[in-house]
Amino acid sequence: MNHFWIILIGSLVGASCSILGCFLVLRKMSMIGDAISHSVLPGIVIAFLISGSRESLIMMFGAAAIGLVTVFLIQMFQNSGVQSDASIGVVFTALFAVGVVLISLYTRQVDLDLDCVLYGEIAYAPWDTLHIGGTSIGPKAVWGVGGSFFLNILVISLFYKQFKISTFDPALAASLGIPVVFFHYLLMGLVSISTVASFESVGAILVVGMIIVPAATAYLVTDKLSRMILISIGLSIVSSLLGYFAAYLLDASIGGMMVVVAGILFIIALFFSPKHGILIKKWSRKKMIQQH
């Protein structure tokens, strides 16, 4: 049964992250997921210091709040003329360092370290179950990640046109009366929630990998946004399935292997995708030369 839960959790994380990843890749903001997954550390520590509890929900609220602060600071620096990649680098390294300092200062006597607050392990996720009235209703990760997945589906479905226009042509969106800034922060809020909901259970490497790699692979395969989203979801599920069995056979990290499989699929698309594949382009060029 644990095999099923691990594959389901990996697939939900992948699907949840890759939907948002498509918009981040198109906006050239792929590393925002990595930034949030590291910069939320002080939020987790502050939530622990205020509540005195390691309850997941309290820490999630603290982490989500700092995740939104991260997005706001990155946007503020960009508006001030700092380049996008530099803004992301400055904010997430500074906030991550603040979290490390807070842990070293205030939580020495408590079992709260970088491993337990930042890097989960998907292999253990099925054992951390949710109970209602003494009855187990499945792993907490399924409900947490599943909730963020359905939230992403709901919001993106309701405002698909607005997100699409804002992503491809912000000036046109503004001229049509679409509140571009609002939808930017709404998207970043979804990224923050999805990242926080996922990384405690499955580890930061899986979250960051699934935000970027399936969406980047889908980008090479199609030029249509709706198709790109569906392909990225499919790729993330395939990566979770194949990655789990590869990790099982090799006795390797499950989350790491899922991302490795996603990376292999990206390399295949890079060389063989119909429109952007390196080998396909070379073959087409060679064929044109021969015809002339």
TrEMBL record:
Task: Give the source's domain of life in one word.
Answer: Bacteria
**Membrane topology category:** Multi-pass membrane protein
Q: Return the protein name.
A: MntD
Point out the coiled-coil segments of this chain: none
Q: What keywords would UniProt list here?
A: Cell membrane, Membrane, Transmembrane, Transmembrane helix, Transport
State the compartments where it is located: Cell membrane
Keyword Cytoplasm in annotation: no
InterPro entries from the entry? ABC_BtuC-like, ABC_TroCD
Positions of transmembrane segments: 6-26, 31-50, 56-74, 86-106, 141-160, 172-196, 202-221, 228-247, 253-272
State the Gene Ontology BP annotations: response to zinc ion; transmembrane transport
Listed under GO cellular component are:
ATP-binding cassette (ABC) transporter complex
Give the UniProt family note.
Belongs to the ABC-3 integral membrane protein family.
Q: Which Gene3D superfamilies match?
A: ABC transporter involved in vitamin B12 uptake, BtuC
